[in-house]
Amino acid sequence: MTVQNPANARTREANSLLKRLNSTNLLGPIIALILASAFFATQSERFLTGQNFSLILQQVMVVGVMAIGQTLIILTAGIDLSCGMVMVLGTMVMTKLAVESGMNPFVAILAGTLVSTAVGFLNGLLVTKIKLPPFIVTLGTYNIAFAITQIYSNAQTQTGLPEALTFFGNTFHIGNTAITYGTVLMLLMYVLIWVFLTRTAPGRHIYAVGNNPEAARLTGIPTNKVLLFVYTFAGFIYSIAGLLLVARTGVGDPNAGATDNLDTITAVVLGGTSLFGGRGLIYGTLLGALIVGVFRNGLTLTGVPSVYQILITGILVILAVAADQLTRKKA
Amino acid sequence: MNIKRLSALSVLMTATVAFAADQPIIGLITKTETNPFFVKMKEGAQKAATAKGAKLLTGAGKADGDNAGQVTALENMVAAGAKAILITPNNAQAIIPAIEKARKQGVMVIALDSPTDPQSAVDALFATNNYKAGQLIGKYAKAAFGKKPVKIATLDLFPGHPVGIDRHNGFLNGFGISSDKDARVVCMQDSYGDQAKGQTAMENCLQKDPEINLVYTINEPAAAGAYQALKAIGREKDVMIVSVDGGCTGVKNVAAGMIAATSQQYPLKMASLGVEAGVKYIKTGKKVSGYTDTGVTLITDKKMKGVTSKDTKFGLDNCWGVK
Fold it and tell me: CDD domains, per this entry (chain A) (predicted)?
């Protein structure tokens, strides 16, 4: 009979965690986040407060949720350039139907969700049936979704939204910290997707398809069905991000979301997910989104102009992809 | 063979243009197709063109800052026979070679809304005086605050943009502050004129200094974002927000008390003056020159002593977009 030494087990556990983090390139981002946070904490006593952390979560909420869809797609070795526009199209349908047509807000939300999901489905169809590269497909739908949004909204912002559309912007309190329901929804979505990806067969299929589509197909995984599902589901996730955007800003703005595709890719890459597919962890994406939010918030608190945030983000993105390449070569 | 066909086609096209040349052709190139400010400017130009019996060609950059798209539009309009072109330059310097080429071919070019750099690269400029627009809200805020202690946040446009710099400096000057280094200015952030980014910027500024009680915003979407951030912490009543633009949504926000005062500008007027000047040039050969201030009016429902202003009813009657 062997008696486990608990201390040994713990170090082993810690070691394996370190290894796992390292193999997914999460170690670098975590160190960057800790170092940056430590630095900002010494510069401003307001940085390390629950309220400030809740605020950063609110600020990354929309891109954070959208980045879930982007992560799923990138895991299949694809990419989605259309996400921000698909989201905004959904928000304009929701808000215009609810405000101008006086439709029941829940029906309006459902309509917006359907529209975004439909564009996701269209992306999936073009990728799987006509075998077009995802980059090209989503570049096309980016423009289509943008144009339809502008035509449908006549470039006008919708204001005076009913309460149901802005619900996720409401807050509850833990101690002195006000937390929005939208943030909770985002965190919940990350947990659910994490369970889906790591504990269910369809989730594992997504990794398999990204790693080697041919091998996946030969082992009996319905590759095309998996891809079609991923793009459609991503469209659905963007519509939820849209609902959060509406809740956060309190308006339906047809000009929002223009650069969100790049912001989501930034979050995914900073979170250690490989752009070549098959490797990555969903909570890495949350971490990536948080890094961007922490820098923006921290630099404001310390009085640094906001261009420096862009500068630092750019450097981090390159470092993250370089780390991915280097570990790939080793492996 | 292809080249032959092409040249035949272009001869044909030039001929068609020449035939239609008795109707004055005027071009309008806006920064984007989508900003409601420019959508309105286009409407104003179309109205004036119809009234004057002129044909209006329109074009735009793909996005804010897209110079190549504007150059293409400009070249196409000259090719189409436009003798006067109105442009809101996306890039004050990069557009100049294309403008020079057009002017050498006898086209009168007027800059609307934003100047070229140098301003003399165009025949004339019809625009809001952005420094004055900033100054008006600065003076208004000063009159409201008097000797009360003030902590100011500025939500600016983006680095280096002349309109953003003019409004920002005008505001500080109007308030009686000579430099960004002044201790009363506690936070300066870029909002890109966008509501969501403005909200984030304001939230972070409030984290930096929760006692901020005056907010300057580059435009009304940024102001709406700032208001949203203040409302979240229950300070929307005791912080003053001032802004520039005068769009219909913005004026409504002034009426609702979200924004204390805004400086209203007049894109419709810029466009109609531009079209009229263009028609006059094509018919008589007489060019306009120099800078024409298309005016700016302070809109507020809470008048301050010594600061001239109009109420939101006037603002709504003169705003651009859907009321």
Answer: TM_PBP1_transp_AraH_like
CB neighbour list of residue A4: distance below 8 Å, 6 or more residues apart: none
> Cβ of A18: how many Cβ atoms within 10 Å?
12
Mean residue pLDDT of chain A comes to 90
Give the nearest partner residue to B203 out of A59, A150, A171, using CB atoms.
A59
Partners of A45 on chain B (C-beta within 8 Å) are: none
The residue in chain A having the minimum alpha-carbon distance to the alpha carbon of residue B225 is A249
Helical residues (DSSP H) of B80-219, grouped into ranges: 96-104, 130-145, 162-175, 195-208
Tokens 């557009």 correspond to B95
In chain A, residues with a C-beta closer than 8 Å to the C-beta of B249 are 157, 159
Please give the Cα distance from A158 to A250 (Å, whole number): 9
Q: Please tell me the total count of domains within chain B.
A: 2
pLDDT score of B323 more than 80: no
Same domain, B78 and B207: no
A301: nearest CB among B159, B195, B204? B204
The residue-averaged pLDDT of A25-35 equals 83
Residue B52 pLDDT class (50, 70, 90 cuts): very high
Residue B293 domain-assigned (yes or no): no
Q: Kindly list the distances between the CA atom of residue A281 and the CA atoms of A74, A197, A203, B228, in Å, as whole numbers in the listed order.
A: 11, 9, 12, 34
Q: What is the span of the domain harbouring residue B276?
A: 3-128+267-288
Based on the fold, state whether residues B271 and B162 are members of the same structural domain: no
For residue B323, tell me if it sits in a domain. Answer: no
- The pLDDT tens digits of the residues spanning B90-123 come to 888 889 989 999 999 999 999 999 899 899 999 9
Residue B274 within any structural domain of the chain: yes
Angstrom distances, CA of residue B200 to CA of A296, B5, B226, B238, B249: 9, 57, 8, 20, 20
pLDDT tens digits, A169-178: 999 999 889 9
**For chain B, which residues lie within 8 Å of any Cβ of chain A, measuring from their own Cβ?**
33-36, 39, 63, 159, 187-190, 194-196, 199-201, 203-205, 207-208, 221, 224-225, 228, 232-233, 249, 252, 321-322
Q: What is the mean pLDDT of residues A137-154?
A: 94
Contact A251 B208 (CB under 8 A): no
| Neighbour order of strands in the sheet with B25-30 | B55-60, B25-30, B84-87, B108-112, B124-127, B290-293
CATH of A28-330, one of 1.10.3470, 1.10.287, 3.30.310, 2.30.29: 1.10.3470
The CATH number linked to B40 is 3.40.50.2300
pLDDT beyond 50 at B255:
yes
